[in-house]
Amino acid sequence: MSIDKIAIELSNYATVEENVPMSSLTSLRIGGNARYVVYPTTVVSLVEVMNLIKKYNLSFKVFGKGSNILCSDNDYDGVIIKLDRSFNECYFTEEGCIAQAGCSIIAVAYEAMRNGLSGLEFASGIPATVGGVTYMNAGAYKSNMAGVIEEVFVLHDGILEWIPNSKCQFSYRHSVFHLNPNWIIIATKFRLKPKPVHEIEEVIESRKARRIATQPLDKPSAGSTFKNPLEKPAWELIDGIGYRGKRIGGAMVSTKHVNFLINEDKATAEDFMKLVEEIQVKVKEKYNIDLIMEVERFNW
Ligand SMILES: Cc1cc2nc3c(=O)[nH]c(=O)nc-3n(C[C@H](O)[C@H](O)[C@H](O)COP(=O)(O)OP(=O)(O)OC[C@H]3O[C@@H](n4cnc5c(N)ncnc54)[C@H](O)[C@@H]3O)c2cc1C
Question: Which pTM was predicted?
């Protein structure tokens, strides 16, 4: 594989991989190749990577575990930044923790449990990074990140800043980070509450059993494909149009959880979007409700 000038310069500061299939970076296992994937090791290395991105006018995108991203089938001529190899320290106090953006939120939730700290039980089965769940205001079982985040450490325009929860504009699967795609989340501070470990463990175990019973965890997916409209849960609408098990190419509506569209067999992004759009049209026709994608499309 030939190494080009940009790759050489990036590799002064970070591990660089070239022409990486984005299917290997996302839970849906779909997507063309990314020109560069970089793994900065420290804030300094990240800042220098950003300087090079600016110098060469490259587009970039931070990926967490790629568990909410549908990449197009096209190649991406830019830089994907991954923090999960090095930004994975978590610091606990009696009141909570500061977790770096690359930490697995599942690992942080279990570590919180071991420290007798409650609040992250709802997130103990979300296959994501701390950066990703903060960006998404991820949630489950009527709880969400907005309820436990105290502040977020962000790199923007070469400046490092703690942004308090009140300025994060959290709402349903939305945050200020959607409005500022150039901001990079470095770490998140969680405020948690003391609780006996066995009580936290009970909740985590029951959530786990529920996920295993209700979600197609053996198939590639990006979790819930659509946001739940105010009127009715998305799964009811999809079931209502008779789309449980519906398949287009390799993409399929899960029979176990109808809001999970799965990569049943070598699905392309095109298969996936055809299925999404067909569902949106039929739901609109039958219920006059707009189903909005929760899964983010990238590189279209
Ligand atoms: C089996 C399964 C179950 C799921 N269950 C849930 C659930 O219960 N609740 C829920 O809300 N979601 C769920 N999801 C969806 C997904 O896990 C969440 O949306 C999660 O927040 C995505 O995190 P990630 O680290 O994978 O981020 P990615 O999918 O990689 O990225 C998501 C967005 O965050 C941005 N981003 C990531 N890291 C950073 C950073 N450091 N700085 C700036 N931006 C960043 C990305 O650029 C992108 O725009 C599920 C997914 C799967 C596959």
Answer: 0.97
